[in-house]
């Protein structure tokens, strides 16, 4: 099933995102988590992120293949520009297509954690931007392409308008849908969607939801991607940061309200950044679907 075909059926599209573990044991645990969530919550699709280098990229192929073949859940592979030439990307997509994977989220990707701090570097014979990757994939493969967008603006973008222009360009080059970076204030999403529609973007824009389960972790993530945490929520989290149970309860409570508000306001679905854990996502989506 192509993800772009899941939209427009009169109901929200729910999806989960996972990252490929580094070990066989981790892969087995992840498959158990996906099976658990799949059986309980019936997601429309799941996605698996792409590691910066060879080993985890191979695991992405293995895991998306197993999810789709063994669990019967539509799977989407993330593909980035990091560390790959065009020919390496071509080979990777051929292998994905050979396993029946026809959905790809095309991203520039971040510099590896061990980079020297100089920012993103283009691989020899590779791609500099997600738009370059999308154009290449659309010209060479019959796959359903998605792209990322940023309600609070990509941290490297010179302005919100410039950032929106590149989101639109992704669709002009072949992407069929957009998934947002995480955010915690629904106004940021709805304002972005309004600007996107005014700019002529008609494609589905699915909000990305990250349940807060750890204060230090979410501070790190928001710093990296330029997202903000509403002050009232942040005060509650900081007050209880040494009590994991209270932090998780606060994060789940906020996410439930956030998701209900997004769907009531017309969001086409919800994409959960699960961090390979099932409890928070299960609690949130079960409440939203009730």
- Summarize model confidence as the mean pLDDT: 93
Q: What is the CATH topology assignment? A: TIM Barrel
The number of distinct β-strands equals 8
Spans where pLDDT lies below 50 across 5 or more residues: none
Radius of gyration: 18 Å
End-to-end Cα distance, whole Å, is 26 Å
* CATH classification class: Alpha Beta
Largest sheet: 8 strands, parallel, barrel
Structural class: alpha/beta
**What series of H and E elements makes up the topology?**
HEHEHEHEHEHEHEHHHEH
Number of domains: 1
CATH architecture: Alpha-Beta Barrel
Based on CA inertia axes, which overall geometry fits? globular
Helical content (DSSP H or I, runs of 4+): 40-55%
Strand content: 5-15%
Total DSSP helices: 11
Strand order of the largest sheet: 1-2-3-4-5-6-7-8
Account of the protein in words:
There is one protein chain. This protein is globular. An 8-stranded parallel barrel has the order 1-2-3-4-5-6-7-8, surrounded by 4 helices. The chain has a single domain (3-289), classed as TIM Barrel (Alpha-Beta Barrel), CATH 3.20.20. 49% of the residues lie in helices and 15% in strands. The mean pLDDT is 93. By secondary structure, it is α/β, with parallel strands linked by helices. The longest helix is centred in the last third of the chain and has 21 residues, at 244-264. The protein has 11 helices and 8 strands.
């Amino acid at each position: 099933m192509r993800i772009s075909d899941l939209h427009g059926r009169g109901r929200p599209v729910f999806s989960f995102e996972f990252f490929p573990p580094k070990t066989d044991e981790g892969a087995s645990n992840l498959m158990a988590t996906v099976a658990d969530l799949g059986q309980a919550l019936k997601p429309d699709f799941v996605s698996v992120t792409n590691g910066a280098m060879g080993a985890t990229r191979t695991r992405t192929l293995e895991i998306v293949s197993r999810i789709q073949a063994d669990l019967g859940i539509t799977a989407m592979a993330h593909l980035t520009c990091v560390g790959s030439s065009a020919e390496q990307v071509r080979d990777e997509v051929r292998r994905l297509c050979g396993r029946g994977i026809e959905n790809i989220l095309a991203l520039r990707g971040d510099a590896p954690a061990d980079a020297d701090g100089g920012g993103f570097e283009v691989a020899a014979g590779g791609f500099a931007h997600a738009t370059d990757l999308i154009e290449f994939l659309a010209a060479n493969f019959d796959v359903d392409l998605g792209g990322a967008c940023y309600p609070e603006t990509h941290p490297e973008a010179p302005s919100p308008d410039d950032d929106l222009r590149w989101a639109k360009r992704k669709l002009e080059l072949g992407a069929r849908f957009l998934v947002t970076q995480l955010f915690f204030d629904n106004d940021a999403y709805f304002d972005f969607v309004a600007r996107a529609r005014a700019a002529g973007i008609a494609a589905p824009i699915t909000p990305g939801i990250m349940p807060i389960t750890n204060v230090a972790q979410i501070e790190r993530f928001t710093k990296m991607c330029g997202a903000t945490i509403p002050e009232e929520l942040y005060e509650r989290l900081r007050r209880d940061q040494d009590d994991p149970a209270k932090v998780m309860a606060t994060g789940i409570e906020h996410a439930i309200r956030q998701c209900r508000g997004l769907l009531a306001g017309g969001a086409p679905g919800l994409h959960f950044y699960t961090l390979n854990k099932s409890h928070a996502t299960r609690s949130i989506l079960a409440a939203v679907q009730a």
